[in-house]
Amino acid sequence: QVQLVESGGRLVQAGASLMLTCAASGRTGAMGWFRQAPGKKREVVAAINRDGVNTVYTDSVKGRFTISRDNAKNTMSLQMNSLKPEDTGNYYCAAVGLGRGQGTQVTVAA
Prior knowledge:
Layout: E1 4-7, E2 11-13, E3 18-24, E4 31-36, E5 43-48, E6 55-57, E7 65-70, E8 75-80, E9 89-95, E10 99-100, E11 104-109
């Protein structure tokens, strides 16, 4: 069973940048980043297909976040720029057929 481990989350000020990384213990197919904040529904932030050619983003992060992957290293990243307080949440990665990781907390202070 391939395992997924996220890293990179921390407390930052609004306007800052962060890069999250998801490390997989083996090969994966399509993957995505999700987030959930207290009292809010879980939402898909971004997704990327297996070869990294096709990506999709939720409207609120378009133009600010970039998802990418390195299949040689079995990693997926989420570059987050111009962070806003509403981006606060537990971010976790998921892969088709493999479930998700434990998540990494991102907190954006106003």
